[in-house]
Amino acid sequence: MRTLGIGLIGTGFMGRAHALAFRQVSAVFELPMHLRLVALADSDPARAERCAAAWGFEQACDWQALIADPRIDLVAITTPNALHCPMALAALEAGKAVYCEKPLAVSLDQAALLHRAAQAAGVVTRVGFNYQHNPMIERLRQMIAAGELGEILAFQGEFSEDFMADPQAPFSWRCDPMQAGGALADLGSHLLGMARHLLGEVEAVCADLRTVHKQREGRVIEVDDQASALLRFANGASGAISTSWLKQGYKNHLSFEISGTLGTVAFDQERLNELRLYRRGGEGFQRLLAGPDLPGYAAFSPAPGHQLGYNELKTLEVHELIMALSGATKAGSDFEDAWQVERMTAAIRLAAAQERWVRLASL
Known about the structure:
Order of helices and strands: EHEHEHEHEHEHEHEEEEEEEEEHHHE
Structural class: alpha/beta
Radius of gyration: 20 Å
CATH topology of the largest domain: Dihydrodipicolinate Reductase, domain 2
Number of domains: 2
Distance between the termini: 45 Å
Strand order of the largest sheet: 16-15-14-13-7-12-11-8-17
Helix content: 25-40%
């Protein structure tokens, strides 16, 4: 059996999520290759050493040495956003497969550069839109494709959290426009990716962005705290999305409704194991609960109602990545998909700045 050498860059929340997924996937799925956790890199060498030992990696090193290591076939990047482009570009130039957290880059130019570099390298790339790997989302996608909702009329979505709600919270890299893109990039990219995943391409947008807390620790804030946008889909559907990292009481509120001529479906990531479905002529919404009839769910539990969680979604994403590396599937969000999402966020920023509709084809 082929061995896949893995190098992970970053030891924060997402680094740990990746490490857990790499360790768990072999226990849950029968894989076509053996996984070897070769190296872990972090800007803090002492932390890298501690996490490498705790998470089962053979060694700690700096990120340049990790990418250059001939034992490593796959580079996973979970660093702050501004580092995604140089690290992913170096990995692609070294001929390595790349698994990068979203957003892919901090600008459309960077995302386009990485998209072109991935095409030239001819390697597998994936981006961490892990919410799309929920078995319930795949069930919904199949319902839409089968026409169960009829003609799709509208997508209404929101992704809100409250981790930046405190105006006295310290300045961080998320507040720097050279390193991050505000709530729109941090949260909205997931929502835009989900809308595109379910309904297809967006043709045009109109938007409004707002910075509520204009200073933190005496430093001027130039990124958005909240964003709202109208969308026009290529299939004729309309859309409305909002995102905020200031909304009190919400922790992971990626929610949306999709309405069609035959029914409506509602989803909320804070209740990720269910869908709410209304069929035309019914007496109310029906609750659809995740269970072993869904392939991804069945890998973890043989019983309905026992529920998957955030880390299981990451494991499902890693499983699909490994199957892509083996040539068994092309499913999953690659650098082209991530570039398309970045194009949507760039169009939203331009639309808000110029107070007009912006067609994505113009970017």
